[in-house]
Design a protein that fits this description.
The complex is a heterodimer. Chain A is an alpha+beta fold. Chain A is built from one helix and ten strands. Chain A folds into two domains: 33 residues; 98 residues, 3-layer Sandwich (Rieske Iron-sulfur Protein). In chain A, the strands form two sheets. In chain A, strands 1-10-9-4-3-2 form a six-stranded antiparallel β-sheet, with no helix packed on it. Chain A has a four-stranded antiparallel β-sheet with strand order 5-6-7-8, with no helix packed on it. In chain A, β7 and β8 form a beta hairpin. The N and C termini of chain A lie far apart (68 Å). By secondary structure, chain B is mainly alpha-helical. In chain B, 67% of the residues lie in helices and 3% in strands. Chain B is built from 15 helices and four strands. In chain B, the strands form two sheets. Chain B has a two-stranded antiparallel sheet. The longest helix of chain B is centred in the middle third of the chain and has 33 residues. The chains are: A alpha+beta, B mainly alpha. At the A-B interface, loops of A face α7 and α8 of B. The complex binds protoporphyrin IX containing FE and FE2/S2 (inorganic) cluster. The site of protoporphyrin IX containing FE has 26 residues of chain B, from α3, α5, α6 and α9.
């Protein structure tokens, strides 16, 4: 039953082939994987003065690399929400006429508290906490 | 009459390399003449447009600078400062669209003539891969000017990959070069657009053309059943090639007209901190998928609507690619064959969804 010389060599070469395949796919694959972001996590951002912010309007704030939408309602209350649509990643806007949040990509609608009302978005927009300290707007992540 | 210098060179080469196989490959092919012969020109038209893409793309490369802070600025520089830069960019953009259009036309014409049947299965498969890469060229090229529209189209187009179970997130991360669409995404798309895809495209194109040249043109049923003395052909070389060249001139004229009178928009620069503009839409050849996704409810069976949509298009694409192996046999005596009906339904679906995508 002895392993023939040819078979033995075939197996040897096959193993070698597999080995070198693994030896070059693994580094290539690892090279292609992006590194995790090294930026420091932002927890608090100042967003200007409360008195200078007109009611029934909005502004997009840079929260680190993340866009956050800050809205002042007609009655003067602030709310801050993640501005990235929960559907497919577009950036939302506040509509003054309907007082709702619109995502123009596929007509997703949220209310001013971030609740998804209609269209494709599957989840509400995540909320941030907004405080006004000495007329200065301060947005912080809500730790859960 | 052969120029004597030319024949001298030919003889010189022939003596050393034996050109007869090449000569045979060029001259043995005959092109059948019948009432559907016009469709034989569509692949050639796509080929011509690809050549234009390579030339204009390489020219754009001389001034284009990838990068969040330089891509948009360099394209603006090309169209405002570089002499005839606007022309080169317009031609590259228009020709990209015409190329995809002709590839679609070519594919449906060979489908309806049933040219995918034995022995041309692999010609069909390679052709389908070329269509896929052409669309990939369009998707990756679209981002390169780093304008607002392209930015959101890429956000949506790459985010949707994330819905695929298990591997989706990983693929999305690899495509984007990070969590979000950033300069890293632009670098990756640039590399894919100007190096990876041209190399793969040319290899597959080489195979596709070799198969066609080797096997000759497919003869539709009505023609191949004719008695031999009724069959009319023209030689591929030089007759058909000259006719091909005539169509290329017509397409070139059309391309010049489009590039001169309908400049390609650049629009505002991408800003990751501005809301998506209203009315964003993908390029027309992705519109039918986009529109179909819109009509899907948020849940189909036990799946997410988007996931169902993606699976649907991928499976449909795979089946379409394997048509030569899966096709329903012709029914003798039927007025209209089952595969023809399927083709018509697919075409109607795609056209209807595209039109709906435009008007809504
Ligand atoms: C070797 C081949 C190619 C090279 C080197 C190349 C290179 C480039 C470069 C540098 C740009 C950015 C400049 C600009 O946006 O105008 C670009 C854009 C683009 N390319 Fe290509 N390209 C090639 C082939 C193709 C093909 C085959 C297609 C489509 C089927 C295509 C479709 C596009 C599109 C749609 C854009 C965006 C045009 C725009 O909005 O300006 N490219 N290409
Ligand atoms: S990305 Fe917001 S609705 Fe689709």
């Amino acid at each position: 039953m002895a392993l023939s010389r040819k078979k033995f060599l075939d197996i040897l070469i096959g193993l070698g082939g597999f080995g070198s395949l693994a030896a070059f796919t693994y580094p290539i694959f690892s090279y292609l994987r992006p590194l995790p972001s090294t930026e420091a996590k932002v927890n608090t951002v100042k967003a200007g003065t409360a008195s200078g912010f007109p009611p029934n309007s909005s502004q997009i704030i840079k929260f680190g690399r993340k866009p956050v939408i800050l809205i002042k309602s007609e009655s003067g209350e602030f709310s801050a929400l993640e501005a990235t649509c929960t559907h497919l990643d577009c950036i939302v806007q506040y509509k003054k006429d309907t007082k709702q949040i619109l995502c123009a990509c596929h007509n997703g609608i949220y209310d001013i508290s971030g609740q998804n009302l209609s269209g494709p978005p599957p989840k509400p927009l995540q909320a941030y906490s907004v405080k006004v300290i000495d007329d200065e707007i301060v947005i912080t992540t809500i730790v859960t | 009459m052969k120029n004597s210098l030319q024949s001298k060179i030919e003889n010189w080469l022939d003596e050393r390399y034996d050109l007869s196989p090449i000569r045979k490959l060029i001259t043995h092919k005959k092109v059948p003449l019948h009432k559907h012969s016009v469709w034989y020109y569509m692949g050639g038209a796509a080929l011509f447009l690809f050549i234009i893409q390579v030339i204009t793309g390489t020219m754009l490369l001389l001034y284009y600078k990838p990068g969040e802070e330089s891509a948009y600025e360099s394209v603006r520089f090309i169209i405002t400062k570089v002499k005839f830069g606007w022309l080169i960019r317009n031609v590259h953009s228009w020709s990209a669209n015409l190329m995809v259009f002709f590839v679609f036309l070519h594919m449906f014409s060979v489908f309806f003539m049933k040219a995918y049947k034995k022995p041309r299965e692999l010609t069909w498969v390679t052709g389908f891969l070329l269509l896929g890469i052409a669309m990939g060229f369009g998707f990756s090229g679209y981002l390169l000017p780093w304008n607002e529209l392209a930015f959101f189209a890429t956000k949506v187009g790459t985010d949707i990959v994330g819905v695929i179970p298990i591997v989706g997130e990983e693929i999305k991360l690899m495509l984007r070069g990070g969590e979000d669409v950033t300069g890293a995404t632009l670098s990756r798309f640039f590399g894919i657009h100007v190096a990876v895809m041209p190399a793969i495209f040319m290899m597959i194109l080489g195979l596709h053309l070799f198969f066609v040249q080797k096997q000759g043109m497919h003869e539709p049923e009505g023609f191949s059943k004719l008695p031999d003395e009724k069959k009319k052909y023209i030689p591929f070389f030089p007759n058909f090639m000259l006719k091909d060249a005539t169509l290329w001139l017509v397409i070139f004229a059309l391309l010049s007209f489009l590039a001169l009178y309908f400049p390609w928009e650049l629009g505002p620069k991408a800003d990751p901190f501005l809301p998506a503009p209203e009315g964003i839409k993908p390029e027309w050849y992705f519109l039918f998928t986009f529109q179909t996704l819109k009509y899907l409810p948020s849940h189909v069976l036990f799946m997410d609507g988007e996931l169902f949509g993606i699976l649907f298009f991928n499976v449909a694409g795979l089946i379409w690619m394997l048509i030569p192996f899966l096709a329903i046999k012709d029914r003798p005596g039927w007025k209209i064959q089952p595969m023809t009906v399927i083709g018509i339904l697919v075409l109607i679906f795609m056209i209807a969804m595209t039109v709906l995508g435009f008007i809504t």
